[in-house]
Write a structure and sequence with these properties.
Blueprint lengths: L1 H24 L5 H26 L6 H19 L5 H30 L4 E2 L2 E2 L1 H23 L4 H24 L2 H5 L9 H31 L1
Antiparallel strand pairs: 1-2
């Protein structure tokens, strides 16, 4: 059974990048955006769960273990943000808060463990990456607490929360694929395997994210000024 998970994980990761890219480029709120976004969530959950199971065979500290849980956390909370508030969504958000707090504590611990190692790395991951992820998950947890206390978000804050969480999940998928040259070389021609070309799609995710966040903020300011 585990031997079947590897192709499932790879296929789900590829579909996540495609569906995520389509959702990011499509007009927000349009049918294409909603459908591709939902398919992106399903693909990310499949990729994350299968990746965590595969990574657990190697080590509990394998970065893909945390990456799988983190992927699931971000897409689930992004999805519940744009769903009507119900007992089910409140339960999911509360459970997600516990997960992201646990992820933060583990990431901080792994960061210090990597920092104390001779090469400053842990399983090939430099010490600053767990600390960076810990900052992101801390911010995410703070947002979860604020939402659970205040209730459902409205308008721009709701869209911004949904947007940045979906984009960070896409960053995880894109970074996982494009960071490994051998993996890219199996699918794309040689010119696309250089460090610059492999970094470009990952950077574009953040460019698109900040663009749409700016659009959401600009729309909010315009609406308040009217």
């Amino acid at each position: 059974m585990l031997s079947m998970l590897s192709p499932v994980h790879i296929a789900a990761g590829g579909m996540a990048i495609i569906f995520g890219g389509v959702a990011l480029a499509a007009s927000k709120g349009a049918t294409l955006h909603r459908r591709s976004g939902l398919l992106f969530v399903y693909a990310m959950l499949t990729m994350g769960i299968s990746g965590s199971i595969l990574a657990l065979r190697q080590s509990l500290t394998n970065p893909n273990v945390l990456g799988g849980f983190m992927s699931a956390y971000f897409v689930i909370t992004a999805l519940t943000t744009v769903r009507p508030v119900s007992t089910w969504t409140r339960w999911l958000n509360s459970a997600a808060l516990l997960v992201v707090i646990a992820l933060t504590l583990i990431e901080v611990g792994l960061g210090f463990k990597a920092l104390a190692s001779p090469g400053g790395t842990l399983n090939g991951v430099p010490f600053f990456m767990p600390f960076f992820l810990a900052i992101v998950t801390t911010l995410a947890a703070a947002g979860d607490i604020r939402m659970l206390r205040s209730g459902a978000l409205r308008a721009a804050p709701r869209l911004a929360r949904h947007l940045w969480r979906m984009c960070f999940a896409l960053f995880i998928a894109a970074g996982s694929f494009f960071s490994i040259r051998e993996r890219v070389a199996k699918i794309l021609p040689e010119p696309f395997t250089t460090p610059a070309m492999r970094a470009l799609p990952v950077a574009l995710v953040f460019v698109a994210m900040f663009y749409w966040l700016w659009r959401v903020r600009a729309r909010r300011i315009f609406a308040q000024a009217r």
